[in-house]
Amino acid sequence: MKKNIAIDIGGTKILGVSFDEKNKMIDRAKRPTKTHKGIDEVISRLFKVIDSVEENKDNINAIGAGVPGIIKKGVIIFTPNLPLSGFNLKKTLEEKYNVPVYVGNDANTSLLGEWKFGGLDKYKNVIGYFVGTGVGGGMILNGKLYTGSMGGAGEIGHTIVDPAGPFCGCGNQGCLEAFSSKTGIFQYIMAQKRKGRKSILINDVDPEKNIFKSSILENALNENDELAEEIIDKVCYYLGVSSANMINLLNPDKIVFGGGLIESLGEKMLPLIKHYAKMYSILRLYDDNIFTLTSLGDDACIYGALTLIENPEVQD
Ligand SMILES: [Zn+2]
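Above: query sequence and zinc ion SMILES. Below: predicted holo structure tokens.
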């Protein structure tokens, strides 16, 4: 039996899953990426993940992978979170395993997963937001992933929602990601702490870590914490503004929300996102039913990598 191998390469972990010919999950393996150890270590860890889901190379049919960054024809042109900028991942894996390899941007790939395996494939125009440490985005237009001229399209997290807003990790100011990602929320909590505000969040978020668990925000909301309520409103306001921009620009059939923060708080957030999106949308283009939550959760990128193998024509 030939197997397809789907890989999700992230800044903290590499996840690999093997699928049989009927797309049934056979095995999965996970290893820390250890980005600080450099390129050779990361690639050797990637090989180990693949080998642990299928030890016999001859049983592999093809490999698909989602990687954060700008990807063009299997080359990682630029990646901010991995020591792999300029690395030809497609060629490396094809030479080692002697099978076809397909590589995509992780957020784009996650959107493909939600589209093909999350029940959205009857729609031709689907936008994805993946809200976690950052805000990833992707666009399926006319039934095809839109990757742009360099493979860098879909960076919705770095579209500007307030030019006077806070600084973003990308060096720009007022990106959606600076407001609505967990990194942005962390910065906001620290700023409120400096102002002397009182909140469960200020007690529970570790200032040393630069990030926090979604459950901390969830708990604070359950306790009706004022700052937590304000934050969730703000996060959804900017996601709503951005969604309205997408609706007015692209007239999508569906907008799907996934990522860590959405998995924890999506049910709470979606009504607020819709509320603000409606305020800023061309009303004839707006419909409550456009909005939907992830159905694959953490595995969206894995199913997207499988989609790249089965339908490589969806990506250039
Ligand atoms: Zn940015």
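The two ends are 29 Å apart (CA to CA).
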